[in-house]
Specification:
Number of strands: 3
Structural class: mainly alpha
Order of helices and strands: HHEEEHHHHHHHHH
Number of domains: 2
Shape: elongated
Strand content: 5-15%
Number of helices: 11
Length: 274
């Protein structure tokens, strides 16, 4: 499961140090892999610390983490035992997933409350991380409806809403395809913003409705990196400055890519909205 893991220090496990049948090495590997997935799914650093700490306490060990933008440095040890393991795990590179985030957080509570043991927790973890995203078509439909609703909220008419729905549907579908093929996320933002803005500009080009400028502006809202911005401020308040500025920089870069695609689309359609 680990993409990049190094064992720095190890020694045999004394009996009775842990509250499970597994060795400290197995527990350490599980916690490091768990942290790498949770971080990659878009969890804040404070949630990462609390979840891993909760699980470590339930298993009878202590866990100390250093959270970096692309790696997790995790050390586990047991009180009264001359044993420790240190792992360096690469953060999973994946789109932000509220589904995985929620399921992994729920898993930590189940283990902490004693509703499942270590073996069951590891089995559920492998199931969560090995299951593909559920119903991407439903996500596509709801994202398109949400963007069309924002168009109405900002004063767009019904014609503009229809244009925004189609523009978002096409752009978001393209985003899903490119992400599934592991395309560079910056390229994804540029291409999808371009496609959605070109389609959204159709409202002005073909004189559909009275609010074509609102249709263009709201057709790319699904690309706004709101979660990275929010997580960066959350990490900043929690004192995780490296992750905070890394996430902020990433969000700014994605916003710039969105702007490049949007401007290219407007220039291509020659609408003169600048």
């Amino acid at each position: 499961m680990m993409t990049s893991t190094d064992i720095i220090e190890s020694s045999p496990v004394p009996a009775g140090c842990l509250r499970c049948d597994a060795s400290l090495q197995e527990v350490s590997l599980f916690l490091a892999d768990y942290a790498a997935w949770l971080h990659g799914a878009g969890a804040t650093c404070i949630r990462l610390e609390r979840n891993v700490g909760r699980m470590a306490e339930a298993l009878g060990c202590e866990a100390v983490m250093t959270i970096l933008p692309r790696h997790i440095h995790l050390t586990t040890y047991t009180m009264g035992c001359s044993e420790s393991y240190t792992y360096i795990a690469a953060t999973r590179q994946m789109p932000i997933s509220f589904d995985i985030n929620t399921k992994l957080s729920s898993l930590s509570w189940k283990l902490a409350d004693g509703r499942i043991d270590f073996k069951e927790a590891r089995r559920k973890f492998e199931t969560i991380t090995g299951t593909p995203a559920e119903r991407p078509q439903l996500v596509l439909l709801l994202a398109s409806l949400a963007n069309a609703s924002f168009c109405r909220l900002f004063g767009g008419d019904w014609a503009a809403m229809a244009v925004v729905f189609m523009a978002t549907f096409a752009g978001f579908y393209l985003k899903q395809l490119m992400c599934a093929r592991k395309a560079d996320i910056r390229l994804v933002f540029i291409v999808c913003a371009f496609v959605s803005s070109v389609l959204g500009a159709g409202a002005g080009l073909f004189h559909l409705g009275c609010t074509p400028e609102i249709a263009v502006g709201t057709s790319v809202l699904y690309l706004v990196p709101g979660i990275p911005f929010l997580n960066s401020f959350s990490d900043l308040l929690a004192g995780h400055y490296i992750c905070s500025f890394s996430r902020l920089t990433h969000a700014v870069v994605l916003t710039c890519c969105l702007s490049i695609g949007l401007c290219a689309g407007l220039l291509t359609m020659n609408l003169g909205m600048f």
